[in-house]
Fold this sequence. Notes:
alpha+beta; Immunoglobulin-like; Jelly Rolls; 5 domains; eleven-stranded mixed beta sheet; ten-stranded mixed beta sheet; 51 strands; about 20% helix; 6-hairpin_glycosidase_sf; alpha-L-rhamnosidase activity; EC 3.2.1.40; alpha-L-rhamnosidase; signal
Amino acid sequence: MKRLQYIVILLFSFSxxxxxxxxxxxxxxxxxxxxxxxxxxxxxxxxxxQTSQTQVEQVAYQIIVASTLEKLKANDANLWDSGxxxxxxxxxxxxxxxxxxxxxxxxxxxxxxxxxGETEWSESAFWSMGILTYAKWNSRWIGYNELFPGDSVSQxxxxxxxxxxxxxxxxxxxxxxxxxxxxMGLYEFYINGEKIGNQVLAxxxxxxxxxxxxxxxxxxxQLKQGENVLGTILGNGRYFAMRQEYKPYKIKxxxxxxxxxxxxxxxxxxSIESIKTDESWKFTPNGPIRANNEYDGEVYDARKxxxxxxxxxxxxxxxxxxxxxxEPGGFYEAPMTPxxxxxxxxxxxxxTATKRGTYILDMGQNMVGWLQIxxxxxxxxxxxxxxxxxxxxxxxLYIANLRDARVTxxxxxxxEGDEIWEPKFVYHGFRFVEIFGLQSKPLLDQFLGKVVYDxxxxxxxxxxxxxxxxxIFKNAFWGINGxxxxxxxxxxxxxxxxxxxxxxxxxxxxxxxxxxxQTLYAKWLDDIKYSQTLDGGIxxxxxxxxxxxxxxxxxQGAYIKVADMLYQQFGDKESIKKHYPYMKKWLLYMETNxxxxxxxxxxxxxxxxxxxxxxxxxRSKDPTRLTDGEVLSSAFYxxxxxxxKKFAAISEANQEDITYYDAxxxxxxxxxxxxxxxxxTNTYANNTVTANVLxxxxxxxxxxxxDKVFQNMAHEVEVTKQGHxxxxxxxxxxxxxxLTEFGRGDxxxxxxxxxTYPSWGYMVENGATTIWELWNGNTANPEMNSQNxxxxxxxxxxxYYENMAGxxxxxxxxxxxxxxxxxxxxxxxxxxNASYKSSHGLIKSHWKKNKNKLTWDITIPVNTSxxxxxxxxxxxxxxxxxxxxxxxxxxxxxxxxxxxxxLMSGTYSIxxx
Length: 913
């Protein structure tokens, strides 16, 4: 089965030519942490430059690809020789060589010509193909579809982990070996007692009836001639025990854990052997992991440990044989995104004894992952850990907002000195842990928080002169990474943890400045596509673990908006091409079923989480605060039609599509203004900020009236709401940028730096270390007051980078091929120091100002350029790298009182007096 292109960014080190010092980074795989087993035939190749020279631009490249490293070293490009290609493209270059088959390997290198000289060939890089067709998966699924003593299926289902082993005998010396593995719901895989890979909670979740992810590992070094043992622990994950039997009408059920494995061994004599899962594999449900449920926690009985169970010589005579079982149903795919792993560690701040003999551990940070403990005690004693995000006034855990999630880990001691333990198949969202069962007060160094999220790089840094804004940035950082779990989830602590589309409609864009989330969101687009109904509907949650198909626009529009983000931030056209037919199908579905008199009549959630009139309630009932759903859906539908025009061109759809979007958008805009625009007051609908900001942001306001509408909206923010947020999830996605783009960056800054309710700063002032679900999350009904959500960030992080730091990708040259550097120096900050690792390289923007002077240090990556906006029209007052502007460049112009420079790559220090 052919698939669309996958991104393989490989950063190389070039040998410098005598005439220049242009190099590339050391060999690594940035976007794909494990280049084994991709299942697309045309991966996109990328490289980055490193040099002390300025104004370096690539003018041509040559890529060669070979089937072996030896051939590559000899420049025998038996798979592909691109020849010298005149192009400045250094990201997303499509492999166009020989068609590759299952398990093929490809080795490649690149040479680059620049305006400053030619490089030598890079070091080599590598990828291999996975299993491309269903027929090639000629192994079978094994499992055991029965409960055992201690297991249960209920609202709080329990199922012990299954420990699986297979002893094999390799009669010859091993030259190369790879494992192809699917373990449902979660797995840990071992060879001769050694865990393979550093991934946790693998594989990433999908709707297993639609697609199943397999992982590939090179295990050459773990195998030896003679006897070996393959061992797997299967946990439950989202496959089993996710409250399925509690609400079967709502929650999808998949079945009992199961696995499918192929081990390909190539011997030194050239012969090949494949070991596969079959009925000879043995298992026991009587290992130490007695229960593992994402919502409720993990139970571990160390007394039931089986030393060396995954090594040669272990007696498994009382273990059961596994059975052939039904496959999950979904097609087998290589992962589009890396697995999760332990990305950080947090040491606790304090331990406090309670009156009931327990201890409260404070990690100091609301985090997501689990707790490692080091304890000592008698055999059979039980240590219980319950997790929460905050405390009540009496110092006890606040757990009312967790709903029915039990979030409790249990460890039963074996009584053999110091015992160190951490769970394998659960995660918790927590700052505080109440620990039961300790016989004496523990020391802080007995505990360590393990932070778990998708294996991705932190790409953005931000610091400014306002400490509240700095803390908001830290809160956003922790909230975003904690909610990356192989898919973007809404919250990590209560009995929900679902990938709601509406939370990331614009949020994904802001997140992309902080984290290299490209492959995560490319995978999520697949999740959405797989969840689409035959008639075109898209769910509220994807993968559709919950059967919620609400047919909204502001939520489901994330499908289109996230694809647009991938294009804008990473230059990813392929996701658009892949998903365009399904996006078009959904738009037609909405038009057919809900477009009445050219207005979109269907909306489900409204402007979700508007700050309510009372601090104790969740949802406002005051009609003056709420925006009509038809206003939201119609404006958003218009906006999506505009994006689809661009997508149609990128996808090379026929002109009829573009004409269709144009005509329909014009009709929607006309009907929208006819019904909702008040020409007497220059306001929309009932004059909420959201009702006005959407038509402003989407360019729906009649000509020459934009400023008047904006002034009314700004008055509503500044005067009526006294400089506070009054929007919900929909309006907040466009508020900060729209205020700044219409000249009121100072008002946006007031919102960003505010410390009183409702604001992000109010969360900080009340002890938040992540972002709340509600503006009044410290006082609202616990039914819905998660303290780790990201949906209310809206466009705040975008505003931080694009409008305050001045790091923005040009719409004309996406993927930061051209950078728009246009900070609002007069919004209220006195300095900003920010950086962003783009696909082309590191971008920096560090400015500081006083009454008489502005200093701005910027870094522009090689093979890119930047439009740099200076807040002055007089070029004589500008120096760049201590030289007058006229001597450095003639490539500038004056526009609306600002100098606009076009600078090529390099580091520049700009001074304005």
